[in-house]
Amino acid sequence: MALPNKVKTLLDEAQALSDYRDCLAYFYKWLSNQFSKQPVRNLINSRAEFIDRLLIKLFNDTGLAQYPDLALIAIGGYGRGELHPFSDIDFLVLTKDTPCEQVTTGLEQFVTYLWDLGLDIGHSVRTHEQVLDQKQNDVHFTTSLLESRLICGNHIEYERLKRHIVETPIWQSSDFFIAKVNEQKIRHKKCHGTAYNLEPNIKENPGGLRDLQTIFWVAKKHFHAETLEELINHGYLTHEEYQELLECIENLWNIRFALHLAAGRSENRLLFDHQPHAAELLGFGSEGKASVERMMKRLFRIMSRVREMNQMLLSYFEQSILPEQVELEATPLDRNFERIGNKIRVKNPSVFFRRENLFVLFEHIADNPRITQIDPSTIRTMRQVRRRLLGDLQDYAGCRDAFLRLLKHPNGMGRAFTLMHKHGLIAAYLPQWRNIFGQMQFDLFHAYTVDEHTHKLINNIYRYFDKEHISEFPICSEIVARMDKPELLYLAGIFHDIAKGRGGDHSELGAVDAMAFTKMHGFTQSDAKLVAWLVQHHLLMSVTAQRKDINDPDVIAEFAQKIKNERQLDYLYCLTVADIRATNDNLWNDWKNTLLRELYLHTQRALRLGLENPMDMRDQIRDKKRQAKQRLINLGYFEEYIDLIWSRFKANYFTAFSEQQISWHSEHLLQSNDLSQPSVIVSNKPMHGGTQVFVYSPYESALFAKLVSVIGSKKAQIQHAQVMTTKDSYVVFSFVILEVNGDPLSTSRAAGIRKGLETLLKDPKKKIRIKKNRSQKFKDFNIRPKIILRPHARENRSLIEIQAIDIPGLLTKIAEVFQAYSLHIHAARITTVGERAEDFFVVSNKDYEALDEVQKAELHRALLKKLNAETE
């Protein structure tokens, strides 16, 4: 598409810097307006044409055009004639000899003018020999030269350079291919090997534009191809695949173009901030979350197709470019399949007319650890079969039998499942999986699409069986070793989130899907019920561990009643650990591991005692005291002094803490010279999954707010809080704190927090300042504070749940409201995911009773008013 006449006129008539800026402003406005009216290819070509004209004019204006030995050459994406709204402009000034002083001055003026116009440029000035020297050591530079294009200047020197790029022995096709493949592997590894991160990089992610460009670079270097279409003539692409590649390129360009417009700058990562605006620009609507999820689903599906095409074509290229490295001798696997090196290949494409053979292929992968990839010809055949399916593969009895064999195979859910997911066989088998394929969740909690999250969960379960990873989660590894039917655990993992995106309770809908699946596949009624129960209750354990006091026997008894038996507890524990670890790389930490492990062990003990014989609280306290006292006696403390210290505490203290914590607190108090003074201890090493903070002080209603302010000012996160009074009107505060990244604090950081708390207790009137530096990153989530008041298991307590953006000082603000209403805080559970805080408090009124309806209503209004004022 030609540039509009007004742009050409403004550019031709430009003299002063302000004229050029006006021309740029008009062009960018035109470019933005045309996005919904023109094919994106036209627009990115138009920007390249505009920059060509701009550079030529400035080249003339600065007097550089009068030097015949200079050639101005576009390289990289600009060399291809593809420039998105704010893409970098890379060019090379080629000189016959080292430039003289006048040329150098002119080049400095030329580059300075471009900088003053606010353009992002990448430039270099090289002689022919210097270019070849740099080319020899730099594959990136060589790649950019492959896409070079003369803008103006000495065409003879440019043509000479172009011949050298192709013909010189530097970076032979084989070396170039190996370098680009390694480069891609490193790039994919940085993206954790997945295209399905919810803030994907449109260029760098697996399945992104770089994967397409890698195909073209190798084809250009080895086959001297100028277009992808030429690969059809070379036998590497079918006409259908070529059209598919063009469609994928067009879609990725559209999304990248919209991202640049939404960000107002060169940006390749589709951050949450930009997703709603980009979705609207692309025509997905302006409903926010729904529009974004539609756009991202389209993007992830495109990236999946690109990644598969990239793998297939690079494998074909490898066979042509590195024939000596490809093992040609075939090892038969059966009458239909054979192994060539580390790849599996069908002997005859017609083998997939029997649809169950699609899964027999993956059975061979499960049987043979040497097979890590699928031959490109087999990938092509699978893709063609997949497109021509008239129904679901699960409709075929042979496919059902083969799928069940894989499900029960010791290695079936390892690499075989990963490759089935990667090549679309799971989606072709399960219609529900197709619904979650590429389904994102526009929130602060999930880091991957639903299908990729589920894939990661299955991988996590598979690791339980792997001897190399047995030390990661020894309880899970011990459980699965004695598990009679591990395939039921895998099935629960496959179905746990399969109903997301449909509306309604995904756990209940998924349980219905699981029952239908198990019935179709001939599972027994008891096995079917277990899978459905696991799917329906897959969040039960994580919610209980993170939101309730798992040291409370009543909480354990209630949880055990829901679990019913040890078999269901074993399966649910393994599923829960795998689920949380697969949700977000930043969510799993030692603290969560400890919570779940302790909930599992407490519940296991309760079930073994019998639901009709719950463990008596007095027995629990007696056991803890006995173990803690023995530790202290071994350290040299006298029993009468230990009992004297313990006589200060109520029974709830001994139920709330482990024997290790009790002995740790007691040792510190036994060393104190004056127990009337406040005491602070902070663990130097992780304890129960986090850094422990213990404060013993005279009671003051505002003290909780002050303590959390100190911890917040040190940029540490509170994961858990316990608050309880003693018999002598003192108060005990216990916090579990972590760094922002989820790690326990270092020794020096722990010492700094202890000093800050001690300073506060010595000077209670000292004010704590917390900077209000709330990130704008998640402003599009529009999370408004939500207050929920519920009854507590104890009649004289009330449970308050608060969901809000985790602004600095949030806990302090909450505590200030509690203080204003004279509430007593008995316990707190603090959870932060991204910038969402989900905090739970157990409170009572000033008379130590549960809140009545009037008090609840007043507190609800006050908290909303306070938090809304802080988040606006």
TrEMBL record:
Domain ACT, chain residue ranges per copy: 692-773, 799-872
Domain HD: 450-572
Span list, region Uridylyltransferase: 1-332
Cofactor section: Mg(2+)
GO molecular function terms listed in the Swiss-Prot or TrEMBL record: [protein-PII] uridylyltransferase activity; guanosine-3',5'-bis(diphosphate) 3'-diphosphatase activity; phosphoric diester hydrolase activity
Entry's EC annotation: 2.7.7.59, 3.1.4.-
Reaction catalyzed: guanosine 3',5'-bis(diphosphate) + H2O = GDP + diphosphate + H(+); [protein-PII]-uridylyl-L-tyrosine + H2O = [protein-PII]-L-tyrosine + UMP + H(+); [protein-PII]-L-tyrosine + UTP = [protein-PII]-uridylyl-L-tyrosine + diphosphate
GO biological process, any: regulation of nitrogen utilization
Regulation: Uridylyltransferase (UTase) activity is inhibited by glutamine, while glutamine activates uridylyl-removing (UR) activity.
Keyword Nuclease attributed: no
Region named Uridylyl-removing: 333-691
Keywords of the record: Hydrolase, Magnesium, Multifunctional enzyme, Nucleotidyltransferase, Repeat, Transferase
The organism's place on the tree of life at top rank: Bacteria
InterPro entries membership: ACT-like_dom_sf (IPR045865), ACT_dom (IPR002912), HD/PDEase_dom (IPR003607), HD_domain (IPR006674), NT_sf (IPR043519), PII_UdlTrfase/GS_AdlTrfase (IPR013546), Polymerase_NTP_transf_dom (IPR002934), UTase/UR (IPR010043)
HAMAP family per record: PII_uridylyl_transf
Stored NCBIfam families: UTase_glnD (TIGR01693)
PANTHER family given in the database record: BIFUNCTIONAL URIDYLYLTRANSFERASE/URIDYLYL-REMOVING ENZYME (PTHR47320), BIFUNCTIONAL URIDYLYLTRANSFERASE_URIDYLYL-REMOVING ENZYME (PTHR47320:SF1)
Function: Modifies, by uridylylation and deuridylylation, the PII regulatory proteins (GlnB and homologs), in response to the nitrogen status of the cell that GlnD senses through the glutamine level. Under low glutamine levels, catalyzes the conversion of the PII proteins and UTP to PII-UMP and PPi, while under higher glutamine levels, GlnD hydrolyzes PII-UMP to PII and UMP (deuridylylation). Thus, controls uridylylation state and activity of the PII proteins, and plays an important role in the regulation of nitrogen metabolism.
Entry's family note: Belongs to the GlnD family.
Swiss-Prot/TrEMBL domain comment: Has four distinct domains: an N-terminal nucleotidyltransferase (NT) domain responsible for UTase activity, a central HD domain that encodes UR activity, and two C-terminal ACT domains that seem to have a role in glutamine sensing.
Protein name (Swiss-Prot/TrEMBL): Bifunctional uridylyltransferase/uridylyl-removing enzyme
Source species of the chain: Pseudoalteromonas peptidolytica F12-50-A1
Lineage: Bacteria, Pseudomonadati, Pseudomonadota, Gammaproteobacteria, Alteromonadales
